[in-house]
Q: What sequence folds into this?
């Protein structure tokens, strides 16, 4: 580990399913297996009163924080099922449990990936 041949650097938009699928497949092709997937996608949205958020802002945060975690799991699951091994680690935010005044969208979305 720590050698460049053991590392693959990929950047993609967490809400773009084809980009997530491509990144997952490129990783599997390079190494021939997937040992683990660590899924974390997070944005807090704007810090402002709840009633000032638009429907579009709310949905954008949900897409990033929920869909952005789900897509890597969806696309790596068939690979791990076929190889009969692998682990998923989902990272969220403590704000899903303990909120902060003015920060409403992050807790609403990250709590959904905690359980």
A:
């Amino acid at each position: 580990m720590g050698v460049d041949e053991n590392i693959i650097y990929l950047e993609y938009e967490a809400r773009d399913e084809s980009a997530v699928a491509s990144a997952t497949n490129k990783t599997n092709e390079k190494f021939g297996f997937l040992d683990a997937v660590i899924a974390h996608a997070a944005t807090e949205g704007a810090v402002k009163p709840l009633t000032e958020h638009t429907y579009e802002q709310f949905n954008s945060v949900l897409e990033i924080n929920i869909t952005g975690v789900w897509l890597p799991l969806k696309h790596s699951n068939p690979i791990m099922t076929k190889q009969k091994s692998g682990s998923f680690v989902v990272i969220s935010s403590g704000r899903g449990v303990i909120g902060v005044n003015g920060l409403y969208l992050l807790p609403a979305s990250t709590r959904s990936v905690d359980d």
